[in-house]
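Re: beginner question about structure tokens

> Can someone show what the tokenized structure looks like for a real chain? I only ever see the sequence side.

Sure, here's an example I had lying around. Input first:
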Amino acid sequence: MNVHHKASSVSSTTTVTLIMALGLVGLICVTMMPISANAAPCFDSPQRAYDYLLAKEASAIQAREQKIININRASEGELVSLNGIGSSKAQAIVLYREMFGDFKTVDELTKVKGIGTKTVEKNRERLSVQD
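And the corresponding structure tokens:
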């Protein structure tokens, strides 16, 4: 069965990770792109394919870690990407914001229980109070 035909039933915005080993040729092709993409990189060994996937993951993590977070609009999921902010502190930020309104400055984040000056300083470059 044609792999591309089968995959076309998936939404074009869906990212598909597909590793297809071509035993006769000895190549490994990896696709981490929307279905509408035309070409997939091919590798001559499983180790190179694995290294490629690790590099792609590291790149995605780095991009996420460099994203500016508007603390007045961020969801709990976005807030937990900050250094020193886990789920409970992220929930506390959202709750504080709902109770007292938007933060006027980044430093007001220290008014949230469990968040101190050190946490704000570690994240200052990534924090914003406006869009």
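Each token stands for a local structural state, so reading them left to right follows the chain. The chain has five helices and five strands.
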